[in-house]
Every structure is written in C-alpha cells, then in structure tokens.
Amino acid sequence: MWLHIKRFDELTTLELYEILKLRTAVFVVEQNCPYMELDGRDQRALHVWMENAKGITAYLRVLDRGVECEHVAIGRVAVVKRRQGLGSQILKAGIDAARYMLHADKIYLEAQTYARGLYEKQGFRQISEEFLLDGIPHIQMMLDF
Hints:
single chain, Aminopeptidase, eight-stranded mixed beta sheet, 8 strands
C-alpha cells in the first residue's frame, strides 16, 4: 500500500482521472445523488490517497483555511471497500497532512451522519444539529489539537 499527498498542480492527468472516477462512483452513482462533484475547490486542496497495485483504495482532500471555511477542512472521504479499516487509515493520513503541511490547530468537516463513529474515533466532535446536504443527512464536526 502506498500513500500519496499532492497539491492539484502536482497530480498527473492519470492520478486526477482516477481520483475523480472514485469520487463520482461513490458520491454520485453509489449514493444516487446528482450534484456538482467538481466544485472548484480541488485546485486549492491537498489530495491524499492510498493505492495498491490495483489502484486507489481510499481518498480525501484537505482544504486550507478560507477555502471552505475559516478552518482547515477535510472532505470527499471515499473508500473502495468499507469495513476494512481504510477509512480510518486515510483519515489519519489526512489529519497528519492538515497538521504538518497546513499547520492546522483545528480541522472542520461535514460528515454524513451514518459515518459519525469513524470521525469520533479520531477525536472529532459534533458541533451542529443534523442537516440535509444534497438530500443526505450530515453533521458538522470539529477536531481540536
């Protein structure tokens, strides 16, 4: 398993294609949720992913302060196969990237409500009531260092 962390302009066209393919498969097709997956924030993100010989196994992006909100933010957390620890592994890698590359003292995210436990295991706490985002229940969460 290999871990990669790159800014948008460091991605190869094949890496970008595979990242967008995974995100679209998970967030648009699997969740049957038509929305603007390409939101204009990728150009200002750290892209963090794990891969093996078969391709990308897990992905997330880390947004610097001021891109999504006033804090460093994590989003687009996606794994190919669930219940294998990949979500926890990629989340740990994203937290480390936020702390050491973007000097985060807090990390914000909007989690799908069903995944709350994944984030709580890493120290995130719920900071909002549940709300609908693109028809899917979400909560805002924060991790303080």
